[in-house]
């Protein structure tokens, strides 16, 4: 089995999508190994998205990610990383509504930035991201 980091971003939480997202998670065969709600501060948001620090959208991204609490979940199943990425759909939530209408981002996202959920994109980033938030567990 494999583990991945899932996050419901501030727009997902504020829009009350948590229950629907969790239903989709369980229905799709993931187990939720750990769960934690936190408010990211600027420093932590910058560190989490450090690979994007040179991009023009970075200041907006940091503002968005610190605009309210996020819900972090460690998800586990066979092929968890790529299955969770498929379930959330493409980065641009507007595009997702057209091309992947049953994806999570189509349901709760609104733009390229405000796409309501996150998922690790590789084994390496899953290990990094799980350890980043959950100091005490084995990443997978
Ligand atoms: P995530 O890493 O959150 O799962 P992703 O892998 O689909 O998303 P990345 O390219 O890693 O997308 O970008 C990280 C986040 O930065 C996106 O989820 C989105 O919130 C924001 N973002 C990405 N591209 C843009 C953009 N062109 N304009 C504004 N925000 C963007």
From TrEMBL:
Enzyme class, spelled out: transferase
Recorded superkingdom: Eukaryota
Keywords assigned by UniProt, alphabetized: Kinase, Transferase
EC number from the UniProt entry: 2.7.4.6
Protein name: Nucleoside diphosphate kinase protein
The organism of origin for this protein: Dioscorea alata
Lineage: Eukaryota, Viridiplantae, Streptophyta, Embryophyta, Tracheophyta
Interval of the full protein contained in this chain: 64 to 203 of 223
């Amino acid at each position: 089995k494999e583990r991945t980091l899932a996050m419901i971003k501030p727009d997902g939480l504020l829009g009350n999508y948590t229950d629907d997202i969790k239903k989709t998670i369980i229905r799709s065969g993931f187990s939720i190994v750990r769960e934690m709600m936190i408010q990211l501060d600027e420093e932590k948001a910058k560190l989490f998205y450090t690979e994007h620090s040179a991009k023009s959208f970075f200041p907006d991204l940091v503002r968005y990610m610190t605009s309210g609490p996020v819900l972090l979940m460690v998800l586990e199943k066979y092929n968890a990383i790529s299955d969770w990425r498929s379930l959330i759909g493409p980065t641009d939530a507007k595009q997702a509504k057209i091309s992947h209408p049953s994806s999570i981002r189509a349901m709760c996202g609104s733009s390229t930035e405000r796409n309501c959920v996150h998922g690790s994109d590789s084994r390496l980033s899953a290990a990094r991201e799980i350890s980043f938030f959950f100091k005490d567990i084995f990443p997978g």
